[in-house]
Structure to design on (960 residues):
């Protein structure tokens, strides 16, 4: 479905947004919005890929003028009007899929070029069509064979639907690729289905494809999958090897790894936000020569007022800025606050962010606050403007178990706030410095602690709130670092350069 | 009332010869009960009433009129029977219990209104000479029968067998006793008695349905929603009922094989009486079919689909699928076997049977042929029932159409070939239909797993 189209203006850069901009607020969405508004001399298009239409409320951003194309498609929209029909597909083509599967299985870690056929749209639209995959006897036999070979012990219905659910979006994506308008560059902020779509567009239109990975999609999928509860391992305890992940989870993981590899192959430049991410990309099969790091940037001037508004003494307030969801591990923060309050009774912990995304988790967190008797110290403030909150805050914290590059840390830096964060994503690089020698020499701008460790967190909080000298030193490093390496202008200029580079 | 299979199984579990006979008799009454009760009551009343009415002709007229009313009401309601049963079953599956009653009533009234209009036009044109009283009774009986079939088929679908049998018994006993007194008023008196009996039966079934289903609405027509019904069911219900009567119609209206009874109403005494007996002869087969389908097969069917839904491994699914297919086979074969025995039994005692009913022994050869026909029709019912269990609507439709059309073609041909061939048209039509049904069922069962997973 095309939401917006300005045919008079040609699209320079087509962005593929999977479950993000402009229908969902959040890190990647903000990044896309900043990129489009920042590079105002170019025209952008956005292809939004959602899960199901009912999962989204509507456009959450004021669309910039240079966004000239926006379409929305849904990967898991199973409402069918046509009658299901038994059918036979071309046996040869299904044989080829089998070979393809083997190819990916064997070559996943090697740098072998991809089979030409799967780069071509015709393969998905003509040779093995969506109906073939969904309804044909060949597809059925194929699934049966795979199951018998790899997953004989798993519940068949789960296996069956997993196979369908992971593969079905491929045809949705192929159809989109065949109808997107002309553009010069295709740019995807993740691998997964978005990256796959970008790859197909790139092969089909013979235009360069740039990949920016915020988190490592494949790895995040792994974490998601290990946490989802609809995938119940029905095998008995003794049927499993110790630490073994069951086949269905493996299947998802392998699928995304294969697709990730395909996407790395297709992209001309692979961008990561920090160096550790770059290393992971390479370990997942990205060509090191294509990999570069472009950190995000923040609008440092915008936080100048917040910096000026700081009171003279350090507020005994620790702010966690983020959604109240399990991945942010709010519970560990609450536990740490109990230890902090034991030492510093006047200390407060503020949780600033929407609470409606996972109401059950929110309830659990609130109960935890009651159980720890922290009603006067830990507060859920809901969504707030960070610029109002930062001056009243002594420490900015993140307790997440997974992050990409959390912009909020940089925003805190710009507002003169040291950070205490768990050792995830680029936190270590941001807080201790890690871009280069010079960055390291700036010094620490806070503390990095292991994940899910309330005690270490609490110690870091207490130390920082009680040692004014240290706090001042950290603030200085924070301001220096953000000004030197993480300004929005630098970030935008980097992308301007890259867009120019790939076109020549 | 839904626990019939449970009760049957309880009886069967005793594992004695007596218990098998008991379960068999029980299911015979439940499955074949209504039609046995109606046919037997009509036959008995024929012999009892003959001395009371002024002439034999009137009893024959009555019998033929009732047959017509039954045939046409079944065919007219054939459009609704499968469709509405499925529609209501689907709503129950969605747990929308409150829409069941109003929609049943809506559909029933729709059929009754149509029946009223059609029969009124028909009888005013063709029964002018019979007078107003006859016309009114004719229209009333036809209308009430149409309502009756709808309630009956839905209650059967919901497995309220016991109450149905009970109601048929009460309804036909009422008719019988009314008729004993009313027979002195000739045809109108008999028609009136029949109307009272049918009305009692109808209101018993309807009352039972209303009592067991709650709703705050009285009537609704949700079943007109194109997305909630299946056109294939509407058509296959119609063609199936049409098919059953096609050969009879042809015999009734072909000049050489029929005589005029009343107005346009004709009958083929030579064909009809052996046909009636042949239908009675398949009662044992129906009982076994019902017993096996409701107890064994239903179990295996549930087990297979439960395994599919609740995440069994493919091996288990295959295994349960094989068990289910074997069970379907045994439903068919056991029905065949028992009916085969019954067939031989009727062959041996045919003369005796005809003498009891004071029928001309000339009918015996045709009776034999038609017995083969009803035997094949029993198999056809069995195969259709299994296909319907698997919701193979398209196959059921093809088969119903094939049955109706081939029955018409071959029956007509058999008449043209002469008396020696009477009945063979019906037999050949069913033979072909059975053959195709077996092919389609086999083809489906061969790839049942593919069908189950990929095409739902």
């Amino acid at each position: 479905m095309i939401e917006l189209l300005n045919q008079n203006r040609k699209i320079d850069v087509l962005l593929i947004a999977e479950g993000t901009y402009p229908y969902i607020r959040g890190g990647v969405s903000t990044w896309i919005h900043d990129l489009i508004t920042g590079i105002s001399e170019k025209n952008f298009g956005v292809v939004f890929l959602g899960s199901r239409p009912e999962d989204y409320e509507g456009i959450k951003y004021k669309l910039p003028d240079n966004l000239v194309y926006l379409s929305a498609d849904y990967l898991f929209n199973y409402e069918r009007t046509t009658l299901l029909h038994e059918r036979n597909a071309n046996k040869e083509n299904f044989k080829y899929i089998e070979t393809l599967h083997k190819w990916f299985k064997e070559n996943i870690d090697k740098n072998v070029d991809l089979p030409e056929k799967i780069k071509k749209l015709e393969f998905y639209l003509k040779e093995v069509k969506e109906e073939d995959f969904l309804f044909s006897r060949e597809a059925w036999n194929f699934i049966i064979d795979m199951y018998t070979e790899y997953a004989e012990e798993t519940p068949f219905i789960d296996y069956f639907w997993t196979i369908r659910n992971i593969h079905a979006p491929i045809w949705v994506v192929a159809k989109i690729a065949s109808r997107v308008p002309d553009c010069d560059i295709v740019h995807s902020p993740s691998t997964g289905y978005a990256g796959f779509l970008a790859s197909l567009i790139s092969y089909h239109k013979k235009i360069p494809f740039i990949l920016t990975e915020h988190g490592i999609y494949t790895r995040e999928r792994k974490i998601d999958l290990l946490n989802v509860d609809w995938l119940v391992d029905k095998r008995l305890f003794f049927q499993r090897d110790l630490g073994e992940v069951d086949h269905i989870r493996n299947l998802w993981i392998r699928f995304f790894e294969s697709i990730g590899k395909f996407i790395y192959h297709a992209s001309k430049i692979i961008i990561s936000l920090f160096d550790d991410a770059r290393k992971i990309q390479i370990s997942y099969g990205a060509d090191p020569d294509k990999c570069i790091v472009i950190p995000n940037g923040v609008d440092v001037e915008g936080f100048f007022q917040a910096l000026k508004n700081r009171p003279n003494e350090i507020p005994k307030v620790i702010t966690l800025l983020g959604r109240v969801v399990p991945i942010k591990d709010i519970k560990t923060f609450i536990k740490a606050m109990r230890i902090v309050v034991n030492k510093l009774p006047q200390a407060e912990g503020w949780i600033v962010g929407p609470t409606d995304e996972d109401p059950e988790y929110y309830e659990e967190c609130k109960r935890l606050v009651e159980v720890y008797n922290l009603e006067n110290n830990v507060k859920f403030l809901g969504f707030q403007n960070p610029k109002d909150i930062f001056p009243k805050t002594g420490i900015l914290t993140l307790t997440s178990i997974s992050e990409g590059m959390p912009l909020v840390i940089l925003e805190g830096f710009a507002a003169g706030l040291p950070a205490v964060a768990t050792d995830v994503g680029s936190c270590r690089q941001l807080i201790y410095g890690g871009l280069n020698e010079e960055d390291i020499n700036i010094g620490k701008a806070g503390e990095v602690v292991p994940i899910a460790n309330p005690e270490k967190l609490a110690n870091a909080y207490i130390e920082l709130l009680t040692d004014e000298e240290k706090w001042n030193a950290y603030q200085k490093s924070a301001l220096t670092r953000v000004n030197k390496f993480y300004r929005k202008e630098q970030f935008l200029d980097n992308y301007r350069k890259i867009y120019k580079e790939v076109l020549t | 009332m839904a626990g019939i299979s449970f009760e049957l199984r309880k009886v069967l579990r005793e594992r004695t010869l007596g218990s098998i006979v008991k379960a068999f008799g029980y299911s015979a009454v439940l499955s074949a009960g209504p039609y046995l009760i109606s046919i037997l009551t009509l036959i008995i009343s024929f012999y009892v009433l003959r001395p009371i009415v002024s002439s034999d002709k009137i009893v024959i007229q009555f019998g033929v009129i009732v047959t017509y009313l039954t045939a046409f009401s079944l065919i007219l309601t054939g459009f609704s029977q499968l469709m509405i049963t499925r529609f209501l079953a689907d709503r129950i599956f969605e747990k929308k219990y409150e829409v069941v009653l109003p929609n049943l009533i809506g559909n029933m009234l729709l059929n009754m209104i149509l029946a009223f209009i059609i029969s009124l036009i028909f009888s005013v044109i063709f029964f002018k000479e019979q007078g107003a009283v006859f016309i009114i009774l004719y229209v009333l009986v036809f209308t009430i029968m149409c309502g009756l079939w709808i309630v009956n088929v839905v209650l059967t679908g919901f497995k309220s067998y016991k109450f149905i049998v009970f109601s048929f018994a009460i309804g036909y006993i009422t008719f019988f006793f009314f008729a004993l007194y009313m027979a002195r008023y000739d045809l109108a008196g008999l028609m009136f008695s029949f109307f009272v009996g049918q009305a009692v039966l109808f209101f018993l079934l309807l009352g039972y349905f209303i009592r067991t289903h709650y709703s705050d609405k009285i009537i609704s027509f949700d079943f007109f929603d194109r997305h909630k019904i299946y056109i294939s069911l509407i058509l296959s219900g119609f063609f199936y009922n049409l098919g059953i009567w096609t050969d009879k119609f042809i015999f009734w209206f072909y000049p050489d094989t029929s005589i005029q009874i009343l107005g346009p109403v004709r009958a083929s005494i030579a064909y009809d009486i052996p046909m009636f007996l042949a239908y009675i002869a398949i009662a044992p087969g129906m009982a076994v079919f019902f017993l096996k389908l409701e107890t064994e097969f239903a179990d295996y069917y549930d087990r297979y689909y439960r395994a599919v839904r609740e995440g069994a491994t493919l091996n288990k699914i295959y295994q349960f699928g094989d068990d289910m297919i074997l069970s379907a086979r045994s439903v068919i074969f056991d029905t065949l076997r028992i009916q085969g025995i019954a067939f031989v039994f009727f062959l041996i005692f045919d003369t005796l049977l005809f003498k009891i009913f004071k029928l001309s022994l000339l009918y015996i050869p045709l009776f034999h042929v038609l017995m083969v026909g009803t035997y094949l029709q029993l198999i056809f019912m069995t195969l259709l029932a299994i296909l319907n269990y698997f919701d193979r609507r398209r196959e059921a439709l093809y088969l119903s159409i094939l049955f109706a059309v081939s029955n018409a073609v071959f029956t007509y041909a058999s008449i043209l070939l002469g008396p020696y061939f009477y009945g063979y048209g019906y037999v050949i039509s069913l033979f072909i239909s059975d053959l195709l049904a077996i092919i389609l069922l086999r083809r489906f069962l061969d790839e049942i797993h593919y069908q189950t997973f990929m095409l739902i």
Observations:
- Chain B touches chain A through 17 residues (CB under 8 Å).
- Strands of chain B lie at 259-262, 265-267.
- The mean pLDDT of chain B is 87.
- Chain B is about 80% helix and 0% strand.
